[in-house]
Amino acid sequence: MAGLTAKLTCPHLMATCWHKFTVCVKFQSSYTICVQKAFGGRFHHLKPHSYRHTLPASETSCKELDSNFTTRRHPGHNHSTIRTFISKHNFCIRHLCTDSVDGIVGRDKPQTVQEAIKYWSKQFIARNVPEAEISAKYIIAHAVGLKQLGDLTYNVLRRKLLDDEQDFVNNLCEQRLTRMPVQYIIGEWDFRNLTLLMRPPVFVPCPETEEFVELVLDHYSPSDKLHLLEVGCGTGAICISLLVELPKAHITVIEKSREACELTKANATRLGVIDRLTIHQDEWGTELPSCLHGNTFDAIVSNPPYIAHEHLKSVGDEVRHMDNGALDGGTDGLYHIKNICQQARHILKEDAFIWLETDTYHSDIIDAWLQQQPNTRLTFIKMYRDFANKPRFCQLQVKKEYG
Fold first, then answer.
1. Rounded to whole angstroms, how far apart are CA atoms 32 and 27?
2. What is the pLDDT of residue 315?
3. What value does the CA radius of gyration of the chain take, rounded to a whole number of Å?
4. How far is residue 151's CA from residue 323's CA, in Å, rounded to a whole number?
5. What is the pLDDT of residues 318-353, one digit of tens each?
6. What is the CA angle 74-44-39, rounded to 5?
7. DSSP alpha helices (H): ranges in 101-161?
8. What CA dihedral angle connects 325, 331, 332 and 338, to 10 degrees?
9. Distances in Å between the alpha carbon of 269 and those of 65, 177, 232, 257?
């Protein structure tokens, strides 16, 4: 069985109404759909209100869904994926019915929080969803109103799920089966000591970026009056973290994505640092953006798109839900990094730093390239490793004297 949701508007069932239904699907050359009205959470075979309709198997369409559907496979059918998108007679069903979600109806569906976690962990494993158990825990904890996994106590795990909670769990977990990132499903995620809103397609910050923020903070003091520039803000994870811990700092960000600018603004407002943040929706290309003319900064901080074209195809399925522009670093992954370096001298103070999060093979290439680009007035200071001991972060500095 598979949990589905749908809105039923059918003249054969009197007026538009909201109820629970069972859809029985017989697999031959067509789909045979039987809808049965439900009362009090129990399904009854009410012939006066039953409705059958046969559709060609090729006819599939979808609009929206709202109530609660279940579908049953014919025992002799071997198809692993069953599409029951039906629009005739105003039946609107969206989700896929698959082998991996068989058995989630009536007495077979998970009754408690613990059973739901076990059930969906198995479904995720069967569909090769990474971090299956932890994904199930995060999603189900969120669905039942918990803020952290530590709140999944013994008593909570034994608690029976309400009908609407079961529906919510099923809906969210079905999204995870499509490899939707957990952060998007939940709508928020912790970054260091902050909880940030998450929305597709804005890129989800990685654990390495938390280290990046720590690295930058180690070089400044809370008493420093700084004007920093961030190139590419995403969710606002970097700039907001810095503003929270550097109370006398002001940060300007430049970001080409409207969605990212809006999300950064929302997170900064929520966390009380919007008054020290300036956001420009613009792109830093081969020329210095006009919005930055006349400004000088104490440092540039950036986790720019740095994945080379040829490597994009090897990123995980979750990344398909994210903005490709937040990943694509050009032929060698250095397109954006080189643009920053070539224009930084116009807006950085003497001895100012550039802090970069890069791909693991970039540090030596950047060092060698800067030595061949004296006009940048930049020197490579140091490479720092991440928690996996991979070269990940670069520190550059404006030279004291030109040439």
1. 8
2. 84
3. 27
4. 33
5. 988 999 889 899 999 999 999 999 999 999 999 999
6. 125
7. 113-126, 132-143, 154-158
8. -70
9. 33, 33, 18, 18
Question: Residue 211 has which token pair?
Answer: 């280290």
Would you state the structure tokens that stand for residue 55, as one six-digit string?
Answer: 């559709």
Preceding amide of 201 cis, omega within 30:
yes
**Using alpha carbons only, what angle is made at residue 124 by residues 116 and 234, rounded to the nearest 5 degrees?**
105
Nearest to 205 by CA among 240, 182, 236: 236
pLDDT in tens, 148-194: 999 999 999 999 999 999 999 999 999 999 999 999 999 999 999 99
Give me the count of residues in the chain.
403
Reference 210, options 386, 395, 34; nearest CA is 386
Pairing of strands 250-255, 227-231: parallel
Give the Cα separation of 297 and 226 in Å (integer): 8
- Written as one string, the DSSP assignment of 232-256 is --TTSHHHHHHHHH-TT-EEEEEES
The tokens of 400 are what? 């004291």
Q: Are 347 and 291 in contact (CB under 8 A)?
A: no
**Residue 313 in tokens:** 């195809």
